[in-house]
Each structure stands twice: as structure tokens, then as C-alpha cells.
Input
Amino acid sequence: MGGSLTERVEISRPALVHNIREFRRRIGPRKKFLAVVKANAYGHGLLEVARLAVGAGVDWFGVNSVDEGVGLRRAGIGVPVLVLGYTPLGALEEAVDADLRLTVYNRETVARLAGLAGRMGKTVRVHVKLETGTWRQGVAPRDLAAFVRDIRRRPGLVVEGLSSHFANIEDTTKHDYPRRQLETYRTACRALEAGGPRVPLKHMSCTASTILFPEPGFNLARVGIGLYGLWPSKETYLSCLLDRKDPLSLKPVLAWKARIAQVKKVPAGAVIGYGGTDRTTRPTVLAVVPVGYFDGYDRGLSNAAHVLVKGRRAPVRGRVAMDFFMADVTDVPGAKLEDDVTLLGADGRERITAEDLASIAGTISYEILARINPLVPRVVV
Ligand SMILES: Cc1ncc(COP(=O)(O)O)c(C=O)c1O
Output
């Protein structure tokens, strides 16, 4: 690994560019391609990913918060940015100032934006979110027309998009629920457009639906996890095969690496780490890894995950602590101080995937990636 870092996250430029091209092929040349870069680009590094993605043909970015959007603007990124999350009323001015598009579904937000548009002399483009059955953000279909009318009567506000979000597409190979959500969207959108102007941008997709439902009628695709080289779930991959759709070739973008902080010999019968949850059954060589749950290495990986050292798998021994854990390198000849330890990614013929860690920690790959502490340096390779 070299240099002065105890750990780092490596971002593969060729892998990211490859994945973007795969999705562009799937989406087609005419639809807008929105890269979801919220949660620090799913742990990959917001600015590192965004800079590569604009060069690779992404049209829009989706963030969760105004802070993330302003971060993109400060880095000189000028493409449209849609805030997908909730923007507090007190943060709207900053959003308008940075020319961010906002997801709206509250009357209070609309009223405040109208005031700001007038005072700041700006046009504010909003995307109305429709509730289709996720029961997260959104305006009920029966309230949509009045909500949109309220926006359109206010000078300075423009309804640029109508969005929604699938609830249950990744966890199953049965897609009647998302199909009902699609139908709810279509019906509401048709009714809205029958009574007024067309909505320029219509979008409802995530990675799974971009792969499984390449629906006509939508003209912006929001893609998150797939860009980072992961399938949303086994079920999505299986559905793709069952539907006889061409599975995309996706390449994981992220590798998480540290270096050994100490190599030590431990006798048989020693109890390792906090709580003594592991006991050696033979004379053992441990590598102390200077990464812990503060860094995002989940405590649920204690005594269960593996890391890679010199291309071999080394089991995690004892509990993952705040800043350290130990790995058993007895079967890794020659492991020494400051050797690379791969927590996630490939070393030689071995690979640890985010899915591997997620299944051990009882979560999903999204969470494993998104929780890698933003303070860990991201390096594009
Ligand atoms: C509103 C919205 N759109 C799109 C996405 C992207 O989903 P995925 O990462 O599965 O592509 C997310 C992710 O959670 C989201 O919240």
C-alpha cells in the first residue's frame, strides 16, 4: 500500500466507467441517466465518484441532502443535481442558491420556495414525489392534481419532474407489487397530464427496475448500487435470468485496505480481544488490523468474517473493537508488519465481497458500503 495511511478505500476508475457504460446501454441514448451518489456515493467518495461519472456520460446526480448537493457545486460540478431526501425549510435558500432541484411533497415547502424564488429572482425546478405504495415520501394520487396546480400558479416555480419509488422490487422474484406501483404512477400521471401541461421528466427507477422493467414512458433513470458494481440482490439477478433478460456485467468498484499494525505469536488457549469470545486451539500468529467499527467495519463481523493477506483468507478472531480487530495469519507464511490487509475486494484469486460481509453482519451490501467512515481516504486507482 505504501505511504503514511493506515487504511484506505480504493476506487477503480475502469470498473466505474465500465458499469456506467453497461447502464447507458440498458437505458438507451435518449433517457437521462441520474447517478445516485447519496451516502457519500454509497461509501465510495462523493466527489471522487462524481468527477469520474461526469466524464463517463452521466447526466444528473441524485443526492440525499442539500449539503451533498452544495459539495458537488463547490467542486465545480455543474450538471443538474436532484435532492432526493427531505430538505428542511431552513435549508431551502441554500438549495435554491446552488440551483439544486428539490423533491417536494409538502405544501409548506412549496410556499417557502415560492417566496425564495421571488426574493432571489430565481427559477426553482421541483420534482413532485408521488406516493405509490412505499409509504415513505410522497403526495397521495388523489391530491396530486391540486398539489401540482398550487405549484404552477406560483411564479418562479416549475414542475420539472414527477417521481416515485419502488418498495418491494429487490427482495423478491414476484413483481406484482411493483407492477401495481407502476400502474398507480401511470394512472396518476395520465390524469395529471389530461388536465394540464406535460411533466418533462418522469422517473421511478432504481437499479433493479432499470434492469427488470425498462418501461417506456419514463425518461430519467435513477441508478445507485449497480453503478458501484453490485446487483441489488440475488433475487434481482435471478429475476433477470428468469425473465430471459441479458444480465449486465457489473464490476465492483471499491476495495477497502489496511495494513498490519503488529504481528504476534499467541499460545494455544489464549482468549482474544474484548470479552474473550475466541480461544486459540493451537499456537497462533495474529495480525493486528488497525480498523474497527468506527471505520465502519461492523461488530457483527467479529469471529466470522475473513480478510485477505498475501492472497490468502485469514479469519477474524475475537470481537471487532472501535479501532482494531485481529486476524489469524497462522496459515499465511511470511505475513509481516505493514503488509496489506484487504477487508473488501480482491487479492490474487481471492475476493471478499460486500455481499459476503453483509450476509455475516445480517444486513445488505448497501449498508456495508455506505457505512465505511467518510474519514477513510478514498483513492482513485
Ligand atoms: C429515491 C431513490 N431513488 C433511487 C435509488 C437508487 O436505488 P438503487 O441503489 O437500488 O439503484 C434510491 C436508493 O435508495 C433512492 O432512495
Notes: Residues 36, 84, 165, 206-208, 222-226, 232 surround pyridoxal-5'-phosphate (CB under 6 Å).
